[in-house]
């Protein structure tokens, strides 16, 4: 297995987990979101923390950004993109947010899968961070925010 294939596999474990949804560290990101309703996603049990919906939009924004950068295309992420405001709060909008997250993850996997192992040591699009670290950071980003989501699901349930 190449290093690129290994990193893509680890991205899959962090995002979808194995056949049972286990990400080797606990539940992976998407299995945790499976039973989350729009109402729960909007709930803010910690007043100064992001809610689940905001975290999903944040993860999506970064995955879209990384997918573009891995292709050596210029991209920027603004504060508005990083923490997108939730406009619609109905169930359909929540499902759209989850679909957007899945689509963004697929873009990262696709862009990553096209890399060679030799490219892992080179930065993206004239940047300074090697692609290997970008992929590792993407995995850690899913795990980190997945942990936040797990805590938010347990805190003061609605």
Spell out the helices and strands N to C: HHHHHHH
Sketch the major β-sheet: none
Give the tally of β-strands. Answer: 0
CATH class: Mainly Alpha
Structural class: mainly alpha
**CATH arch. level architecture:** Up-down Bundle
Overall shape? globular
Average pLDDT figure: 93
Q: Give the DSSP E fraction (strand runs of 2 or more residues).
A: under 5%
CATH superfamily label:
dinb family like domain
Number of helices: 7
Distance between the termini: 45 Å
Radius of gyration: 16 Å
Helix content: 55-70%
By CATH, the topology is: Four Helix Bundle (Hemerythrin (Met), subunit A)
Please indicate the count of domains.
1
* Uncertain stretches: none
Structure notes:
The protein is mainly α and 158 residues long. The chain has one domain (3-154): dinb family like domain (Four Helix Bundle (Hemerythrin (Met), subunit A), Up-down Bundle), CATH 1.20.120.450. It is 59% helix and 0% strand. The protein contains 7 helices and no strands. It has helices at residues 3-15, 29-33, 38-42, 52-70, 79-82, 91-113, 131-154. Helix 1 packs antiparallel against helix 6 (91-113) and helix 1 packs parallel to helix 7. The protein is globular, with a radius of gyration of 16 Å. The chain starts with a helix and ends with a helix. The model has no long low-confidence stretch (mean pLDDT 93).
List the main descriptive attributes of the protein structure presented here.
single chain, 158 residues, Four Helix Bundle (Hemerythrin (Met), subunit A), mainly alpha
């Amino acid at each position: 297995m190449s290093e690129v294939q290994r990193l893509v596999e680890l991205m899959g474990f962090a995002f979808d987990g194995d056949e049972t949804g286990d990400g080797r560290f606990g539940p992976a990101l998407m299995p945790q979101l499976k039973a989350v309703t729009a109402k729960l996603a909007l709930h803010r049990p910690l007043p100064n923390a992001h809610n689940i919906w905001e975290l999903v939009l944040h993860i999506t924004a970064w995955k879209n950004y990384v997918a573009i950068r891995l292709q050596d295309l210029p991209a920027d992420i603004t504060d508005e993109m990083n923490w997108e405001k939730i406009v619609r709060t109905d169930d359909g909008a929540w499902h759209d947010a989850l679909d957007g997250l899945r689509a963004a993850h697929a873009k990262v996997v696709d862009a990553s899968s096209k890399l060679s192992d030799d490219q892992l040591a080179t930065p993206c699009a004239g940047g300074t961070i090697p692609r290997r670290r970008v992929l590792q950071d993407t995995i850690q980003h899913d795990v980190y925010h997945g942990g936040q989501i797990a805590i938010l699901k347990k805190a003061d349930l609605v």
